Amino acid sequence: MKPLFTYLITLTLLTFACSSNSAPFSAQKIVVSGGSITEIIYAFNEQHRIVGVDSTSVFPSAATKKPQIGYVRKISTEGILSLSPDLLLGEADTGPQKVVEQLKSTGINMTILTQEDNFLGIEAKIKHIARLLNVPKKGEQLANSLAIDRAALNTVLQQSTYKPRVLFILNVRSGQPIVAGANTSANELINAAGAINIAAEHIQNWKPLSTEAALALNPDAIITMGRHGDTPLESVSKLAHFKFSNAVKNKQVYSFDGSYLLGMGPRTPQAVVELASVLHPNAKLPATYKFRFAKTSQPNIELSE
Amino acid sequence: MLALGSTLLTEQKQRKMAIPCLFLACVFMFFIALSKGGVNLSLSEIVAIINQLETDSFKNAIIWQIRLPRIVLAMVVGAGLAACGCAMQAIFRNPLADPGLIGVSSGAALGAVTTIVLGSSLFANFSSTLGVYAVPVGAFIGCISVCVFIYRLSAHSGQFTIISLLLAGIAVNAIVGSLIGGLTLISNEQQLRDLTFWSMGSLAGNHFAMMLPSLCIIVLSVVLLLRLAKPLNLYLLGEAQAKHLGINVTRLKKQVFICTALCTGAAVSITGIIGFVGFIAPHIVRLVLGPDHRYLMPASILGGALLLSFADLFARTVMLPAELPIGLITSAIGGPFFLIMLLKTYQQRSL
């Protein structure tokens, strides 16, 4: 208890000393709704200030041990108040709207991020959260560390003029795969990784794909959502939709962890580098580049039928 | 089936006792629900807050802005759904009837889903002017339009027969189901999640200004339905018999239809779909008190209020700080309880 106390005092003093324009208030009991915010606060090593998280906060796994306030679009007023937070920090899709309004009326200190949640905005989001937590230096550091990923991504993309035609599948378990069309985060990241989302021309949002349309699309590569240890090629090649596609023929089927690739948190730029490097296998990463987080895509070399 | 358990408590006295008992239970439940939740408050604190003696603005906000509206809503909606269920079961002379049959729930769902999915594009004006009221208003409009449609279909050339009502209801429900499916398909991720949660029902996040129109409609309809207890009793004898006894049967059916549509519509529009309360509360009461609507109707109303407020208390406290959807709880608690009641009654009757 004591070291924490001294830490808090020094932190308060430091913020007083360092920041002349930002408010001296620094939230110590934060409820987070939105997985990427949790991830960013953990990356700042400020996780002791989190008193509750939503169910999308799954990384790092320690975050799932914190009190759960429910799903990000279905948070509960009293549940959050019972944690007596001094800051509620939520992503733009925090809801339902009625509950957000009600929380406002109780006078709780809350910040809902409204800036666009996209690949290019990750650094801005990190800095914004750092300002709210009164740790702007950590924010700068973390945001700058992502520059390495951006540079590596550029290096990969410069080496290849070829744009593979990619299909992103949310779920292959049911007979009809749900794929990412235009206006999805997956579409944005596929474009960022120097590829073409072939579903985007025909489909808006996440939609089930018909068998014949899938046959006609004939993707060069397929990305699925999954966990480490999944064998996406096996499950995808069983579907009539993709059995005869170039992706299955050439074993270009990869699975990525959802919060890693689509979370728009500090790991996402690295995930896009990984995505770009599997989609452009001939392009080389910079010699100095290191993957700092666990990679999730699975090579499918050992599988042969 | 309707006469099930009528021999259980034949004495008039016991039937009369049931209503004050249920009322007391509701009052008791009201204070329990007021004191329990994410932030625990003692009874003395609650009394102080209600008398405006407590000045702690946080606790004041908890009671006045969060808990009290929610409990009032739970009780009124529970009462309204139970009254409608009770009246519907009488009009259809079938214990399986519920307000969903006349298209209320599916109409409200269609309205709500349309507002959620097309609110930002096609009905941008509607959504931006109404703000948080857009979905409830949309749901209410949807519900009333579908009910009017079903009414027009079944009230054919002065006739208003139950069988045509039932058939029209089933057909329109199917059409509405496919429309909702279509809207679900064109919705984006966020809208999809919103509409999924809407259909599971929730009592959270309403303040008095928002609830007031719904509460007025529900209370008014409940009072009207209460007054129909005697004619409903006679109607149970059969349409012809009721006619001979001086009941305007067509008018009675229309009255029940309109009250149910308004009442359930108002309830569903603000809370989303809360299944099973309207079905189960009258049933349980009928098992104990018998089918006399003079007792059945008020007792069902109190029972519905009790059931829904209990389910809501359970939903918001059992997995704090998260919250369960209320629709899941009403079915999960109500279903098994109902089965036990039913089995016990059958056993007693067979003895």
Automatic annotation (TrEMBL), chain A:
PROSITE patterns: FE_B12_PBP, PROKAR_LIPOPROTEIN. It comes from the Bacteria. Residues 1-22 form the signal peptide. The lineage of its organism: Bacteria, Pseudomonadati, Pseudomonadota, Gammaproteobacteria, Alteromonadales. This is Iron complex transport system substrate-binding protein. Residues 29-283 form the Fe/B12 periplasmic-binding domain. Keywords: Signal. PANTHER family: HEMIN-BINDING PERIPLASMIC PROTEIN HMUT (PTHR30535:SF4), VITAMIN B12-BINDING PROTEIN (PTHR30535).
From TrEMBL, chain B:
InterPro entries: ABC_BtuC-like, ABC_transptr_permease_BtuC. The chain crosses the membrane at residues 17-34, 71-92, 104-124, 130-151, 163-187, 207-226, 256-283, 295-314, 326-346. Its main location: membrane. It holds the Pfam family FecCD. The keyword Endoplasmic reticulum does not apply. GO terms for cellular component: plasma membrane. Keywords: Cell membrane, Membrane, Transmembrane, Transmembrane helix, Transport. GO terms for biological process: siderophore-iron import into cell. It is a multi-pass membrane protein. It is found in: Cell membrane. Belongs to the binding-protein-dependent transport system permease family. FecCD subfamily. This is Iron complex transport system permease protein.
